[in-house]
Structure formats: C-alpha cells, structure tokens
C-alpha cells in the first residue's frame, strides 16, 4: 500500500468510526448522556465532548476559555487539565446541542481532510497540551483513528450496543497497539534483559506476537512463536484493547497466563499505553 493509499485508508476508517459515534448518540435521551463509561471519570457526554474538542482544535478553532471547578479530583496535572477544559465546558449542553455540534464538526473535518494538500510525511501540529509536537501527517491521522475507535468502544459498552470490533478502525488500532507492545513490556513494565513474552489474541481481530527484550533493555516484537517464553498471555481482542487503553483492572481481566506469574503480573499492571 502506498503512502497516499494509507492516508486515504486512515481517513476512511476515521470517518466510519466517528459517524458510528454520531449514529449511536443521536437517539439518546438526556439521562443516557450521563451514563458512565470505562474512560476514567467521563460520561457519555464527556466522551463525545472530547471527540468534538479534538477535531475542532485540528480545524483551527480556538480552545474555550473556561475555569474548571476545584473539586475535579482526576484533574491533577497539565495534561488532564488540557483535556478537561472543553469537556467540562459542555457538561451543561443538551442532547440536541451535543448531536448538532458533533454532526457539524464531522462535516467540517471531513471536508478539511478531503481538501488537504498535506503529503503523508509532511510535519503537522499534533495538539496534545503539554505534549504538543509536530508529527507526520499520516501519523496524526492514525492517532485520530485510534482515539475515535477507542472512544466509540467506550460508548458502545456504556450503552450496551456492541459492534465494530472488526471494523477498519479496529484494524488500525490493532496495528497501533502492536507497535507499542514492545515499549509496554520492555520500558513500562521494565522486565529484565533476555525476557521473552508471548501474546495470543483471539476473536474478531486475531494476532500472535512474541516480544523479546535484548541485552540493552530494548523490546522488539515479531510473529515467530517462542518455544519457551518466560510468560504467555492469551485473551480476546476486546479485552486486549481494554487493557492496552487502561479501561479495565488487570486483576479482573479475562486473561489466561502461563509461566512466571510475578513477571506476568508486572507486565499486566503496566500494560496501558494511553496517557
């Protein structure tokens, strides 16, 4: 697949996922907008507000001027404050206001993506508060697919409307999470040099990966099956994604573990790759 085709594939995956979000929330009553999601501290309304805010900022819209309440216990650093401001600003918005703004934002963003003249490797601004930086255009698009699909699944679980676990956006998310897997094992979990860890994921999205940590503590992943890994993990795709995105307590996750149990616990407790 060429770089141009990758950009189009990411754009199509983003649009399918975010339009699925619009379809999910359009019929909701006011009470349903307040349902809690697995995204820590956020309701259905908050998740949708975040999606609107991110796409609006990429469109160049100014961030809202808003003072956060002092009793938001989860707002404890600059990044959480950055994310929370546009979310809290919309907590008084009605259901029609939310769906109307989401629909209009999708329309504007889709038009901007269609008209974009950015080459796949052009450096563009990735707005992430204290982590704002320039990244290649294709990477920005992939990050948006990952974020939108992850939040789509937050909404689906909150509303008990499962779906799109094998969509194009799910496959982009899979590739993104696999790319981050060596870092989760080698750096976040800090496992010893020479460690080998095997993962088998089943369900609508399937894959197997072996992570190897070299003598310098760097991790790498490949599709070769190790005959005697130090730890083995087997789980389904939805559980894997929930773990990697910090949506579920590793102690209660449906994961079959074999091998060194202490090592496995160390990895699972540091498995989330989201901020």
TrEMBL record:
Gene3D superfamilies found in the cross-reference section: dinb family like domain
Keyword Transport recorded: no
UniProt cross-references to SUPFAM superfamilies, sorted A to Z: DinB/YfiT-like putative metalloenzymes
InterPro entries: DinB/YfiT-like, Maleyloyr_isom, MDMPI_C-term_domain, MDMPI_metal-binding
Leader sequence segment: none
Keyword set includes Isomerase: yes
Keywords (A to Z) from UniProt: Isomerase
Molecular function GO labels: isomerase activity
Pfam families: MDMPI_C, MDMPI_N
Organism the protein comes from: Streptacidiphilus monticola
Domain MDMPI C-terminal: 174-264
Entry protein name: Maleylpyruvate isomerase family mycothiol-dependent enzyme
Origin: domain of life: Bacteria
Residues in Mycothiol-dependent maleylpyruvate isomerase metal-binding domain copies: 14-156
């Amino acid at each position: 697949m060429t770089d141009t085709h990758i950009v189009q594939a990411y754009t199509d995956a983003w649009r399918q996922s975010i339009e699925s979000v619009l379809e999910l929330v359009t019929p909701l009553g006011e009470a349903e907008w307040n349902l809690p999601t697995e995204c820590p501290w956020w309701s259905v309304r908050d998740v949708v507000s975040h999606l609107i805010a991110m796409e609006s900022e990429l469109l160049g819209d100014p961030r809202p001027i808003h003072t956060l309440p002092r009793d938001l216990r989860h707002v404890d650093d600059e990044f959480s404050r950055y994310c929370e401001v546009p979310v809290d600003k919309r907590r008084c918005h009605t259901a029609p206001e939310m769906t109307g703004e989401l629909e209009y934002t999708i329309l504007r963003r889709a038009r901007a993506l269609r008209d974009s003249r950015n080459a796949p490797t052009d450096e563009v601004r990735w707005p992430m508060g204290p982590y704002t930086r320039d990244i290649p255009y294709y990477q920005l698009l992939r990050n948006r697919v990952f974020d939108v699909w992850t939040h789509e699944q937050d909404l689906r679980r909150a509303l008990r409307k499962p779906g799109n676990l094998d969509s194009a956006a799910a496959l982009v998310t899979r590739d993104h999470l696999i790319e981050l897997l060596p870092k989760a094992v080698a750096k976040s979990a800090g496992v010893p040099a020479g460690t080998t860890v095997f993962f088998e994921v089943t369900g609508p999205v399937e894959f197997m990966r072996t992570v190897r940590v070299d003598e310098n503590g760097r991790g790498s992943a490949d599709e070769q099956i190790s005959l005697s890994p130090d730890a083995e993990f087997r789980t389904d795709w939805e559980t894997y994604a929930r773990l990697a995105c910090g949506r579920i307590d590793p102690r209660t996750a449906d994961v079959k573990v074999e091998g060194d149990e202490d090592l496995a616990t160390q990895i699972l407790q540091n498995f989330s790759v989201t901020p």
